[in-house]
Amino acid sequence: MNPPYKLVEKAITEVHAKFLYEYFNIRNEATKYLLKNKLVERHPIHGDFDEGDWLSPKSPYVIYGDPMFDLEMMEQLETVKSESGEDLMPMVSYARLYTKDDELIRHTDRIWNRKITATVHLGSEGSNNSWPLYVQSLEGETAEVHLKVGDMLVYVGECQHWREPCEHDNYSQLMLHYTQKGSVTPENEPVEILDGRSYL
Q1: Alpha carbon distance 2, 69 (integer Å)
Q2: In this predicted structure, what is the pLDDT of residue 79?
Q3: Whole-number pLDDT of residue 109
Q4: Alpha helices in the chain (DSSP H)
Q5: How far, in Å, CA of 177 to CA of 179, rounded?
Q6: pLDDT digit string (tens) for 72-98?
Q7: Would you state the pLDDT for residue 167?
Q8: Residues 137, 143, 149: CA angle, nearest 5 degrees
Q9: Which residue, 12, 16, 5, 173, is CA-closest to 79?
Q10: How far apart are CA 3 and CA 24, in angstroms?
Q11: Cα 145–chain centre separation
Q12: Euclidean distance between CA atoms 118 and 116, whole angstroms
């Protein structure tokens, strides 16, 4: 992908982004209730409260492979292929709900099965200011990216990216991970579509 990151404005409509934002907030509150009242056992299918996640130590709620967000991953596949110039297959969605003073530690997504990421801003509350995402190219140039609701940044996972402490009460971000067709694992086995899952 050249350049290694690209802003796609209004990748999804503001109405749809807000729908996904409200859905994610409901998942957050429902999971708190279910766990507090011991109606379910802690399990990734419900999402998790990632205290101690090194990427964002204070972030309260994350969810991997949620069906709604996986459907969005499928919906955005052709757009991400077009913007990246890569022949991609979908791997997994990952959503994170940030709260005040959360930050995103400087890191790369240098994982063999997540080589292209599309990150979408779904919505926020508590501040009218943008919360910039910083992305550094492999040549060391840093871009400050401001995502409006529904905007998407497509980037190569090897690019370092980070965020400073958040001033919003709630800030929802959706990550859609893809990889190039023909990718192989560290053991030289073919990478399986959908992160090895048999269905969304």
Answers
A1: 27
A2: 97
A3: 81
A4: 14-36, 67-75, 77-84
A5: 7
A6: 999 999 999 999 999 999 999 999 999
A7: 94
A8: 120
A9: 12
A10: 31
A11: 15
A12: 7
pTM of this structure:
0.91
108 neighbors 159 (Cβ within 8 angstroms): yes
Q: What is the CA radius of gyration of the chain?
A: 16
Angle (nearest 5°) at CA 25 between 194 and 117: 35
pLDDT at site 71: 97
Edge-to-edge strand ranges of the sheet holding 61-64: 5-8, 152-156, 116-125, 170-180, 88-99, 61-64
CA angle 26, 105, 34 (to 5 degrees): 25
**What is the C-alpha to C-alpha distance for residues 36 and 171, in angstroms, rounded to an integer?**
23
Res 50: pLDDT: 64
Q: Encode 33-63: b = buried (16+ Cβ within 10 Å), e = exposed.
A: eebeeeeeeeeeebbbbbeeeeebebbbbbb
Which residue stretches of the chain have pLDDT < 50? Answer: none
DSSP lists the bridge partners of residue 173 as 96, 121
Task: Establish whether the linkage from the previous residue to 3 is cis, with ω within 30° of 0.
Answer: yes
pLDDT at 41: 86
